[in-house]
Amino acid sequence: MSSSAQLPRRRRPRLRSRGRPPVDADSDVRSALLDAASRLFLKHGFERVTARQIAVAADTTPAMIHYYFGTKLGLFRAMLERAIAPVRELIAGSLSQAGAVVDPAVLIRMHMRTAAANPWIATLIVNEVLAEKGRFRATFIRDVAGRQAPLVMELLQRARAGGSLRKDLDVRFAALSLMSLCIFPFVARAVAGPVLGLKYDEEEMERLIAHTARLFAAGTTAASREHHA
Amino acid sequence: MSSSAQLPRRRRPRLRSRGRPPVDADSDVRSALLDAASRLFLKHGFERVTARQIAVAADTTPAMIHYYFGTKLGLFRAMLERAIAPVRELIAGSLSQAGAVVDPAVLIRMHMRTAAANPWIATLIVNEVLAEKGRFRATFIRDVAGRQAPLVMELLQRARAGGSLRKDLDVRFAALSLMSLCIFPFVARAVAGPVLGLKYDEEEMERLIAHTARLFAAGTTAASREHHA
DNA sequence: CTTAAATTTAAACACGCGTTTAATATTGGT
DNA sequence: ACCAATATTAAACGCGTGTTTAAATTTAAG
Questions:
Q1: Is B220 on the interface with A (CB under 8 A)?
Q2: What is the average pLDDT across B108-122?
Q3: Which of A229, B170, B186, B229 could form a disulfide with B122 if both were Cys (CB 3.0 to 4.6 A apart)?
Q4: In this complex, is the C-beta atom of B127 within 8 Å of any C-beta atom belonging to chain A?
């Protein structure tokens, strides 16, 4: 407010000069945009991040989003594709060896460790799947939940047929409970942290995972006596 | 597209005439705004609803939001205050008789029945509590979760001390699991519905509640034998 | 009867959004 | 050496947003 009184807008000078830049190698605008988009979209959600914010974070201009990805949504989709590729492979992997897995506890550990190690997954689910107009919901239902849920249900079904689970257990409800126990602690981290005094560090997470696996196992096995109606 | 070719904007004629209206009683603009705000804000979230949408739904103009509530956020807060008043009383009620309640299953049933009967609660939690910049998060942590969680933990603590729960049970984890089981099924309704084939009708919800209460009870009681490490 | 207060309409405001465009500079192929 | 393709900047575009304002009209009070 001291020297630039009558300048209408102060603009920090662009580092890059006009026109096609020299072959500077490691100045990759396209992936800089993808990186910035990952950081911002995954944390705050599609709608809450502006194209200008991403451009600034990638040290370029919004026009580059149009140039490389057409629209903001195009950038979002490209970013998402790259981000969930590892998760897709993980699911495909557990799907291929579906016959071998028998213990729900193994599934619980896998799910929770993945969610704990990749905090952006929970944020993405809140912003783009559970929210009314989430732009990832359809894809998520088709490619992620739609493949994982039948796997879980079949696993539970087999365990029940094998006698290790209660005969009267509804596998759909049991699958829902399993997902609830695995996902909600991370989705509700911003509330559960302060309210329950959780730190969400690695040691605590391992204890939570053990607790969860044991709770689900004890809650579904045939061995447990009913306490009352 | 036939007769109004050169009219720049067709505007449906306002029903109300200019100036201060006669004392017509049941034409209450203020509560019409609150009603419209409830319907729209609670379903779609604060950011995804425009002041104009609310004004149209209340059959008035955005200027009335300014007149009665100052800003869109003021309207949101007034609406929210009115909406959560019953929930607040419910919590206060269960807080006053905290000494009497002993069975976690009672809490589970209460929570899930409330969530099932008021679908807007889950939507509100997704949009305004779990989302990064949710405008209800701070209040929710202070007034809702911050009061309910200690109650749940104390209840579990007493049950454990009384011998009905496992001695090695971490009450914070158990409280988190209880909340997960109660809340997530409704928060994730848009996914769980199609993926698990749930209809979320009343009969099904009663079975889900029974399943959940039993799962949690069996998963936390001292009676259950460990199956293995 | 006069006048101040209350309530509403229609119009505009300033701003930020995603997107587009024109100009410009560099590259690599011929 | 030329030239088309490529990559970038700066500026603008049109639109929708929340908000504000001026005028208009009625009520209620003095």
A1: yes
A2: 95
A3: B186
A4: yes
